[in-house]
């Protein structure tokens, strides 16, 4: 029997999920990572029920839930601390078939790597797609520092600046700057508890969420020119922008070292690609549909992509038909989410007094009318189910009790 060979370019969450899913379905997988090591870049990640169900397909859902903190009751606040909207985590879990959970990004990366043979991932291996191949004929060709690799399937999971995307769709303009930048931190225990929250100010926001080990995952966003950086350090910049916001924001900032603050401009692809595949190559995650983080779905959608891709490209089957089915299934969903995240981003970036007052008043009114109206924002997102049988890890469908 001929072995079907897949090359995954990029070892982020989407790339490793794809590698694990493809390996599980019988592909011989090689992951190429240009970085010299697999030290994960990032702080924390929130996984909604949709991506947890996707991870169940490869037997990782229960492991994720055992490591993660269930995002508790919280809501939306103003910088002074006034609550605009409250959320009910039990109601959300009941509506979407499970809770939103939070864990360290490094923990998720480690779990995904545990599903792969040790020799699968090659670090320090910048790669270039030389030939996308033809699904019904010639193989794809990927150039690496140690020689060219022929592959039956190439998966471009190489992020916002994807070289695979450029090779497949050279006329597409790619991601554009969204108008705002983000910061992310992991803060050591504060010695006291607090309630999860997201706080919206004038053209800025802050979120603080406790993790299971007592640390805090926090993120911030603010309108800023593209490529801007603090004159001193990014911790000082956070203190200038958020140091007078409500508790625990100043305490979280104070608990981190300057070198631990990650800052990245946000780029998104509001103009969709013609397809998420071409020839023998497929794109997933930010390479295919970079989106603003305002829905918290970027990593979740990369996981969905990976599981759906592996479902459609069975070794030995018609690859062209499988890749076409993958694009047809994923493109409408991810395009809609990119645009929805962009609309929410524009609301966050409001800075004028009348506009901010109107926005905050609208959010407070919707919350008073009932939590179901707030949760309805995620209908069709968090309730998504994979094409494969969910809960392959043995988890009870619709679990809404805390682990």
From TrEMBL:
One of its GO terms (molecular function) is monooxygenase activity. The keyword Oxidoreductase applies. The keyword Oxidoreductase applies. Keywords: Monooxygenase, Oxidoreductase. Residues 6-340 form the FAD-binding domain. It comes from the Bacteria. This is FAD-dependent monooxygenase. It comes from Streptomyces argenteolus.
């Amino acid at each position: 029997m001929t072995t079907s060979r897949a090359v995954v370019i990029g070892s982020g969450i989407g790339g490793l999920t794809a590698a694990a899913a493809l390996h599980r379905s019988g592909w011989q997988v090689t992951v190429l990572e240009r970085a010299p090591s697999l030290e994960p870049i990032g702080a924390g990640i929130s996984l909604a029920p949709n991506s947890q169900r996707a991870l169940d397909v490869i037997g990782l859902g229960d492991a994720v839930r055992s490591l993660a903190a269930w995002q508790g009751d919280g809501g939306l606040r103003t910088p002074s601390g006034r609550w605009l909207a409250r959320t009910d985590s039990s109601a959300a879990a009941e509506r979407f078939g499970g809770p939103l959970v939070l864990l360290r990004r490094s923990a998720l990366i480690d779990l995904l790597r545990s599903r792969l043979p040790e020799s699968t991932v090659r670090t320090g291996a910048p790669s270039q797609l030389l030939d996308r191949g033809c699904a019904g004929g010639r193989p794809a060709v990927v150039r690496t520092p140690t020689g060219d690799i022929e592959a039956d399937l190439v998966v471009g999971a190489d992020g916002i600046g994807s070289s695979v995307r450029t090779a497949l769709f050279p006329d597409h303009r790619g991601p554009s700057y969204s108008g705002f930048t983000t910061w992310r931190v992991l803060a050591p225990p504060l010695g006291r508890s607090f309630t999860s929250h997201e706080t919206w100010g004038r053209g800025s926001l802050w979120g603080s969420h406790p993790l299971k080990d007592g640390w805090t995952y926090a993120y911030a966003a603010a309108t800023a020119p593209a490529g801007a950086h603090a004159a001193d350090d990014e911790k000082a910049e956070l203190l200038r922008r958020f140091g007078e916001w409500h508790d625990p924001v100043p305490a979280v900032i104070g608990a981190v070292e300057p070198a631990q603050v990650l800052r990245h401009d946000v780029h998104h692809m509001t103009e969709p690609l013609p397809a998420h595949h071409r020839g023998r190559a497929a794109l997933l995650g930010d390479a295919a549909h970079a989106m603003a983080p305002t829905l918290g779905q970027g990593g979740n959608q990369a996981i969905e992509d990976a599981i759906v891709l592996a479902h459609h490209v069975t070794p030995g089957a018609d690859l062209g038909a499988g890749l076409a089915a993958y694009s047809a299934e994923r493109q409408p969903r991810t395009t809609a989410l990119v645009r929805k995240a962009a609309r929410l981003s524009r609301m966050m970036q409001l800075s004028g007094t009348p506009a901010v007052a109107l926005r905050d008043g609208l959010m407070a009114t919707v919350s008073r009318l009932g939590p179901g109206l707030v949760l309805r924002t995620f209908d069709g997102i968090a309730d998504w189910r994979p094409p494969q049988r969910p809960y392959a890890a043995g988890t009870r469908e619709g679990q809404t009790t805390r682990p």
